[in-house]
Design goal:
binds magnesium ion, alpha/beta, single chain, Rossmann fold, five-stranded parallel β-sheet
């Protein structure tokens, strides 16, 4: 009997319909946001630099930032049922986010979902003792400069324990974790990348679609993955 797969789930634009980090950046960042966003989309700067650059434009008040994030939150349909399904089949659910991160637990708490998630790998954003907004990336790779949160390492941690991984995400930055997983449920940018690279995937509309996905078997993805979390990170 195969081990039930674990789910590694992106947060912004995946669990929530909107990317709340991008929404905060666009709302408070003004023209500076467009410049930083264009540089990121052209892959001139990695997400870690995007976060730190945008943070300079945000209010230095976590209450204001959290209130906006909560106001704009819409949980994608079926997420609650998906979490119940995962619990029923004894599958672990990990959220892995490379956004500002501070709003994830409050949002899940607000919707009574937090207790159904096994663990949350996320960045943190806070006002430091000098009144400056800081973004810290505790799950970054030790030398790779691309991601703030090394989602590929979280996928690999599970696989090295013999647990297959289904990756659920929407953004281009999800390509690293997705490329290491055994099956991918992609939307938007990630779907295009899966198609271009002939990965094992099925696109999805809401979390009811993901409930239908069967547990994959463990696969060695080292030759076709986009990065090397146990090595120097991004493959050149
Ligand atoms: Mg996303």
């Amino acid at each position: 009997m195969t081990t039930n797969a674990a789910y590694v789930v992106d947060f912004d634009g995946t669990v929530t319909t909107k990317d709340l980090s991008s929404e905060l950046a666009a709302f408070f960042g003004g023209t500076e946001f467009m410049e930083i966003e264009n540089r990121y989309r052209n892959r001139e700067i990695p997400i870690k630099i995007w976060l730190q650059s945008i943070a300079k434009s945000l209010p230095r008040d976590m209450d204001i930032l959290l209130a906006k994030a909560l106001q704009w939150t819409e949980i994608r349909p079926g997420f609650d049922s998906f979490l119940d399904h995962a619990i029923e089949q004894d599958s672990q659910v990990f959220i892995a986010s490379d956004g500002f991160g501070f709003y994830i637990e409050p949002i899940l708490e607000e919707y009574n979902l937090l207790h159904k998630v096994d663990y949350i790998y996320r960045n943190d954003t806070f006002v430091d003792g000098h009144g400056k907004l800081q973004v810290v990336t505790p799950h970054a790779h030790s030398v790779c400069t691309v991601c703030g949160n090394c989602k590929a390492a979280h996928v690999l941690d599970l696989k090295e324990k013999g647990i297959p991984v289904i990756y659920i995400g929407d953004g281009s930055n999800d390509r690293f974790g997705a490329s290491w997983s055994d099956y991918i449920c992609p939307r938007d940018q990630l779907e295009k990348i899966c198609k271009e690279n002939d990965f094992n995937y099925s696109p999805w509309f809401d979390f009811y679609d993901i409930i239908k996905v069967e547990s994959p078997s463990l696969q060695d993805r080292s030759a076709i993955s986009f990065c090397s979390p146990r090595g120097s990170g991004i493959k050149v």
